[in-house]
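Standup notes, protein team

Yesterday: finished cleaning the Cricetulus griseus set.
Today: Ig kappa chain V-I region structure.
Blockers: none.

Input for Ig kappa chain V-I region:
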Amino acid sequence: MRTPTQILGLLLLCLIGARGDIQMTQSPALLSASVGESVTITCQSSQNIDNILAWCQQKTQNPPKLLICYAYSLVDGIPSRFSGSGSSLVDGIDSRFSSSGSGTQYSLKISGLQPEDIATYYCQQAVSTPPTVIQATT
Protein backbone atom coordinates (compact mmCIF):
# COMPACT_ATOMS: atom_id res chain seq x y z
CA MET A 1 0.00 0.00 0.00
CA ARG A 2 1.35 3.42 -0.91
CA THR A 3 1.61 6.18 1.67
CA PRO A 4 -0.08 9.56 1.06
CA THR A 5 3.38 11.07 0.47
CA GLN A 6 4.17 8.47 -2.20
CA ILE A 7 0.79 9.02 -3.82
CA LEU A 8 1.25 12.79 -3.90
CA GLY A 9 4.69 12.22 -5.42
CA LEU A 10 3.12 10.08 -8.14
CA LEU A 11 0.54 12.78 -8.81
CA LEU A 12 3.32 15.33 -9.17
CA LEU A 13 5.12 13.07 -11.65
CA CYS A 14 2.04 13.29 -13.85
CA LEU A 15 2.66 17.00 -14.26
CA ILE A 16 5.45 16.31 -16.75
CA GLY A 17 2.91 15.44 -19.44
CA ALA A 18 1.04 18.73 -19.11
CA ARG A 19 -1.95 19.28 -21.38
CA GLY A 20 -2.40 23.01 -20.88
CA ASP A 21 -4.79 24.85 -18.63
CA ILE A 22 -7.57 22.68 -17.31
CA GLN A 23 -10.54 24.38 -15.70
CA MET A 24 -12.24 22.62 -12.79
CA THR A 25 -15.79 23.32 -11.60
CA GLN A 26 -16.98 21.96 -8.27
CA SER A 27 -20.54 22.02 -6.91
CA PRO A 28 -22.28 22.76 -4.72
CA ALA A 29 -20.27 25.58 -3.14
CA LEU A 30 -22.12 25.21 0.17
CA LEU A 31 -23.82 22.08 1.44
CA SER A 32 -26.15 21.62 4.43
CA ALA A 33 -26.97 18.14 5.73
CA SER A 34 -27.85 16.28 8.91
CA VAL A 35 -25.97 13.51 10.70
CA GLY A 36 -26.71 10.17 9.05
CA GLU A 37 -27.55 11.62 5.63
CA SER A 38 -25.57 11.00 2.45
CA VAL A 39 -24.12 13.90 0.47
CA THR A 40 -22.51 14.12 -2.97
CA ILE A 41 -20.07 16.73 -4.28
CA THR A 42 -19.37 16.89 -8.01
CA CYS A 43 -16.31 18.04 -9.90
CA GLN A 44 -16.15 18.66 -13.66
CA SER A 45 -12.99 19.26 -15.66
CA SER A 46 -12.80 21.16 -18.95
CA GLN A 47 -11.01 18.22 -20.56
CA ASN A 48 -10.34 14.53 -19.92
CA ILE A 49 -8.07 14.12 -16.89
CA ASP A 50 -7.86 10.30 -17.03
CA ASN A 51 -8.74 9.87 -13.33
CA ILE A 52 -5.71 11.94 -12.26
CA LEU A 53 -7.87 13.53 -9.58
CA ALA A 54 -7.61 13.81 -5.81
CA TRP A 55 -10.28 14.66 -3.25
CA CYS A 56 -9.11 16.43 -0.09
CA GLN A 57 -10.68 17.41 3.21
CA GLN A 58 -9.58 20.44 5.20
CA LYS A 59 -10.80 21.20 8.70
CA THR A 60 -10.46 24.65 10.27
CA GLN A 61 -6.85 25.48 11.22
CA ASN A 62 -5.56 22.15 9.86
CA PRO A 63 -3.66 21.26 6.70
CA PRO A 64 -5.54 19.51 3.89
CA LYS A 65 -5.98 15.75 4.25
CA LEU A 66 -5.85 13.56 1.15
CA LEU A 67 -8.97 11.35 1.04
CA ILE A 68 -9.03 9.87 -2.44
CA CYS A 69 -6.49 9.70 -5.22
CA TYR A 70 -6.69 8.53 -8.83
CA ALA A 71 -10.46 9.14 -8.59
CA TYR A 72 -11.18 5.77 -6.89
CA SER A 73 -8.63 4.95 -4.15
CA LEU A 74 -9.33 5.86 -0.52
CA VAL A 75 -6.17 6.88 1.32
CA ASP A 76 -5.22 4.66 4.30
CA GLY A 77 -7.07 5.78 7.44
CA ILE A 78 -10.00 7.46 5.64
CA PRO A 79 -13.41 6.09 6.76
CA SER A 80 -15.25 3.92 4.24
CA ARG A 81 -18.25 6.28 4.34
CA PHE A 82 -16.31 8.50 1.93
CA SER A 83 -16.41 7.49 -1.72
CA GLY A 84 -15.47 9.09 -4.99
CA SER A 85 -15.92 8.63 -8.69
CA GLY A 86 -12.75 8.05 -10.49
CA SER A 87 -10.69 7.62 -7.22
CA SER A 88 -9.12 5.39 -4.54
CA LEU A 89 -9.35 5.79 -0.77
CA VAL A 90 -6.01 6.49 0.89
CA ASP A 91 -5.07 3.99 3.66
CA GLY A 92 -6.93 4.66 6.90
CA ILE A 93 -9.83 6.54 5.30
CA ASP A 94 -13.28 5.22 6.30
CA SER A 95 -15.21 3.50 3.52
CA ARG A 96 -18.14 5.92 4.08
CA PHE A 97 -16.19 8.07 1.61
CA SER A 98 -16.47 6.94 -2.01
CA SER A 99 -15.66 8.34 -5.43
CA SER A 100 -16.93 7.72 -8.94
CA GLY A 101 -16.55 9.11 -12.43
CA SER A 102 -14.20 9.26 -15.38
CA GLY A 103 -13.07 11.55 -18.16
CA THR A 104 -14.41 14.96 -17.16
CA GLN A 105 -17.08 14.09 -14.54
CA TYR A 106 -16.24 13.04 -10.96
CA SER A 107 -18.04 12.88 -7.65
CA LEU A 108 -17.34 12.37 -3.96
CA LYS A 109 -20.01 10.73 -1.81
CA ILE A 110 -20.06 10.69 1.99
CA SER A 111 -22.50 8.11 3.35
CA GLY A 112 -23.80 8.28 6.92
CA LEU A 113 -22.55 11.79 7.57
CA GLN A 114 -20.82 12.21 10.96
CA PRO A 115 -20.12 15.39 12.99
CA GLU A 116 -16.38 14.95 12.33
CA ASP A 117 -17.07 15.23 8.59
CA ILE A 118 -17.72 18.99 8.92
CA ALA A 119 -14.96 20.43 6.74
CA THR A 120 -14.10 22.01 3.42
CA TYR A 121 -13.76 19.51 0.56
CA TYR A 122 -12.08 20.08 -2.78
CA CYS A 123 -10.99 18.23 -5.88
CA GLN A 124 -7.64 18.72 -7.60
CA GLN A 125 -6.44 17.62 -11.01
CA ALA A 126 -2.75 16.93 -11.59
CA VAL A 127 -2.68 16.40 -15.35
CA SER A 128 -1.57 19.91 -16.25
CA THR A 129 0.69 22.47 -14.64
CA PRO A 130 -0.14 24.01 -12.28
CA PRO A 131 -2.40 21.51 -10.51
CA THR A 132 -5.88 23.00 -10.40
CA VAL A 133 -7.90 23.35 -7.22
CA ILE A 134 -11.32 24.80 -7.60
CA GLN A 135 -13.59 26.64 -5.18
CA ALA A 136 -14.15 24.29 -2.29
CA THR A 137 -17.37 22.85 -0.91
CA THR A 138 -18.04 23.51 2.77
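Follow-up from PR in the comments: The chain has one domain: 4-133.
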